Amino acid sequence: MSYFIYARKSRKDAELEALGIDVLERHITTLLELAKTLSLPIGAIYREVVSGDSIDARPVMTQVLSEVEACMWDGALVMDVDRLARGDTIDQGRVQRAFFYSNTRIVTPNKTYDPANEYDNEYFEFSLFMSRREYATIKRRMQRGRERSSSDGYYVGNVAPYGWERVIAPDGKHYSLAPHQTEAPVLDLMYDLCGNKQYGYQKACTYMSNMGILARSGKPFAPSTLKGIISNPANIGKVRWGYRKTVRAVKDGRVVKSRPNATDYILADAAWAPRINIDLFERANQPKGCFSAPIRSDRPIQNLFAGLVRCSQCGRLMVRKKAQTKTPYDFLICQYAECSTVGIRIDELEEALLGWLKDYIAKYEFSDTHEEDTAAIAAKELIVTNFETEHQTLLKQRESLFDFLEQGIYTKEIFIERSNALEQRIRDCMNNITAAREDLYVTIARQANRKNFVPKCKNLLSEWGSLTVPEKNSALKQLIDRIVLTKTKRNKKNQKNSEFTIDVYPKVPK
C-alpha cells in the first residue's frame, strides 16, 4: 500500500487566492516534496475545492474516509490536521476513529501522527479540538461581520439577485448593487406582467419563454423562480439577511436540515437606489393561487417516486397529482406548460419499474459478469505489480547515479542530465501506478456493488407488498439514482394502455 495526498481550500486562503496564487497546487507541491524527502510512495492526490461545514458537504472527504476505513492506505499527507475536519464533534470523532482503527498515519510538514502511539493519538485529538474552537470563532466573527454590513445597507451575498450586478461600494470596502445591463429590463417586464397586467406566474413564464427570454441557467423561467425574483426586497432598495436560516434537528438519529422562513431577520435600507416602487412590488406579490400545496414535514410521503422520476424533455423532476373524481388514481406530471411530456398513472409506472428490477436480476444471474470482473481484477492487480516492480528498479538506479558520481564515472553535467531523465521516468511510473490502482479500485468497487445490488433488489421485490409508501420511496432511493420517463401520448380514459419508456439509472457502476 501507499500514501495519498489530501489538499483542501480553507477560508484563510482567500487572500492568497485573490493575489492569483493557486493554493491547492502550492500545497500539493509542498507535500510532494515532503513525500520525496521521506521516501513515501504516493498512490493518489485528492483535491477538495468545497469548504463545507460538515463531512457530508465535502464529497472528496467522504470518499477519502471510506477508503481509509477500508484500510486501503498506509497514510495521508496533509498540510495541517485541521484540513481533515473542522466541523462539529461528531465529524471530528468520525475522522479520528477512521484513522485510528485503520492504523493510517497522518503526515504533515511539522509532525507525523502514528495512531499506534498513544501520545500521538492524544495530540491529534487535541489538535482537532483546537481547530474546532478556532473554526467556531472564525464563523462567529464572519457572521457578525455580515450582520453588521447588512444593517448598514451593503450587499453581503456571493451572487447578485436577478436584475442586478455586484459593484464595489463607494467606501471601497463593501459591496453594493447596480442594475444589470441586460437583466434589469427583464426584471421590469416581470413586474409589469405580474403587477400591472396581473398575470399568474406560469402565464408570465410562458410569455417570456415565447419571447426567447431565458433564466441564467439557459432554461425557461419556472414559476417558483419567478416568484422568488419578484419577492426579493432588493428590488425596492432593501437588504434582507437571515430570512431563511439553516435549522438543524436530529430525526431518527440523523441530522436533518431545513430552511424555514424566519421572523427575526434583518431588513434595512440599502445603499443602492430602488428599481421598483412599493405599490408595484406589492401588486406583483399578491397571492396568485397557482402553486400546489407545499409538502408538510409532519406528514409521510404519499408519492413513492418522490425525487426519482425526471422528464426526458426538460429534465425536471415530475410531481404527483392526487386522485380526483374524473381521474380516480394518482398521476405523475411535468408541471411546466412548455413541456410536451404528458402525465402517467403511478400504478402503471410502478408495474413497469418492478418489471425492470425482475429483468435486471434475471440478466445478472444468467450472465458471466462476476467471472469477468474477477478476471479483470486479477489482470489489473498484475499490472499494478509490474508497475511497482519497475518503480523499485528505477529507485535503485537513482541510488546508482550517486555512486557513479562519487566514483568519477559521471561528470556533474552527465549526472544532472541522467538524473533529470531518471526523475521523469520515476514520475511517469508513479502516474502509471496511480492510474492502475484507481482502475483496480473502481473494478473492485464495481464487483462489490453488483454483488450487493442484486440481493437488495430481490429483498425489495419480496417485501414490496408489505411496505408503506415512505418505505418504498426510501428503498428505491437506495437502489436507483433516477428514472427518466418518455411519454408523449395520452391514455384512453381510465385505461392503463400507455405508450411510454423508462430509462432506469441504478446506483451500481456499469
From TrEMBL:
Q: What protein name applies here?
A: Recombinase family protein
Ranges of residues in domain Recombinase? 161-297
| Record-level Gene Ontology MF annotations | DNA binding; DNA strand exchange activity
Domain (Resolvase/invertase-type recombinase catalytic) spans: 2-153
Look up the signal peptide feature and give its range.
Answer: none
Recorded hits in Pfam families, A to Z, give: Recombinase (PF07508), Resolvase (PF00239), Zn_ribbon_recom (PF13408)
